[in-house]
Amino acid sequence: MVNKNVFITGIAGFIGSHLAELCLSKGRNVIGIDNFNTFYDPKIKRQNLSRFQSNITFYDGDIRDRDLVTKIFRENNIHTVFHLAAMAGVRPSFQNPTLYADVNLNGTNIIF
């Protein structure tokens, strides 16, 4: 079987890190990106990532960085995308709707 490359956005978060571990256990090559924003404690995200970082290709960056995302796809022959990166939280989204729209809508548009 050909080892398929999976790309996980938001890989250092709770769901992303567990998904990465599952993909690795299934023999997938994992490529991930995370920007360690401060909505959730970046120290916890770095701990999540440390469990498997030596077994993946990791990019510390933002999904809104079109050049970086293009580079990731160009260099890694991505087969599957798990897009988990997002600004979370309903209440904070009302305080800064422009940022939430930029990350959640424009970032998603760049990924796909």
What distance lies between the first and last C-alpha atoms, to the nearest angstrom?
26 Å
CA-atom Rg in angstroms? 14 Å
Main sheet characteristics: 4 strands, parallel
Report the CATH topology name.
Answer: Rossmann fold
Unreliable residue stretches? none
* Mean pLDDT figure: 95
Determine the structural class based on helices, strands and strand pairing.
alpha/beta
Number of strands: 4
Residues in helices, as a percent range: 40-55%
CATH superfamily: NAD(P)-binding Rossmann-like Domain
Characterization of the model:
It contains five helices and four strands. The chain is α/β, with parallel strands linked by helices and 112 residues long. It has a four-stranded parallel sheet, covered by helices on one side. Helix 2 links the parallel strand 2 and strand 3. The two termini are 26 Å apart.
Condensed summary:
By secondary structure, the chain is of the alpha/beta class. It contains five helices and four strands; from the N terminus they run βαβαβαβαα.
